[in-house]
Amino acid sequence: MKKFEEKTFNIPALTGISAGNIEEHLKLYSGYVKHANLIIEKIAELTATPESSEQNAYAINEMQRRFGFEFDGMRNHEYYFGHLEGGAQTLADGSVLKEAIEAEWGSFDAWLARFKALALTRGIGWAFLYYDPTTKRLVNAWVDEQHFGHLTGLAPILTLDVWEHSFVADYKPSGKKAYVEDFFKNLNWSTVEKNFSDASAR
Ligand SMILES: [Fe+2]
């Protein structure tokens, strides 16, 4: 059976976020890949025959419910770590993405303030900037845990992990705001632009 493959990331020294924390964080990513694969494997075992599918329905359904958590845990982190590769790069004035952000929120700074505030939503989860191919608009959204709140059919453009494991080793538990600020100091905007151009070209 085809398995999800764990990706590797070439992350340089970052502002504020230590190499040790990235190393630990990557272990958690690895766990999501492992468990996404494990669920698919176990469901295949439990559905080997029509009879076994019926007999194991409760266990299968619970694993199926769990799959969104593990899969999105894997995929969200691939976007996140990807943003930290290649060194910090700003978003150039006049770029297609910057103009799309300005068209939606009035100014880049207005969007940035909104997104940073979104990232400070209480609880564990993620701040997302999506591209909606149906309306050809950008949309900010909060995702609880790894998977509650994803917007159907929209492509992630920018993802920011604000689970406590992403920052408490380097910042105090109350230091989420400083972590969010540092994330933007480390962000390679060219990765966001690529996600946007891929999504808008579909
Ligand atoms: Fe994480």
Report what the structure shows.
It is a single chain. The chain is mainly alpha-helical and 202 residues long. 53% of the residues lie in helices and 11% in strands. It is built from 7 helices and 3 strands. It has helices at residues 19-46, 50-55, 57-83, 96-105, 108-119, 176-186, 189-201, and strands spanning 125-132, 137-144, 155-161. It has a 3-stranded antiparallel sheet with strand order 2-1-3. Helix 1 packs antiparallel against helix 3. The radius of gyration is 18 Å and the shape is globular. It starts with 18 loop residues before the first helix and ends with a helix. The relative contact order is 0.16. The model has no long low-confidence stretch (mean pLDDT 97). Fe (ii) ion (FE2) is lined by residues 25, 28, 77, 161, 163, 165-166. Fe (ii) ion binds at residues 25, 28, 77, 161, 163, 165-166.
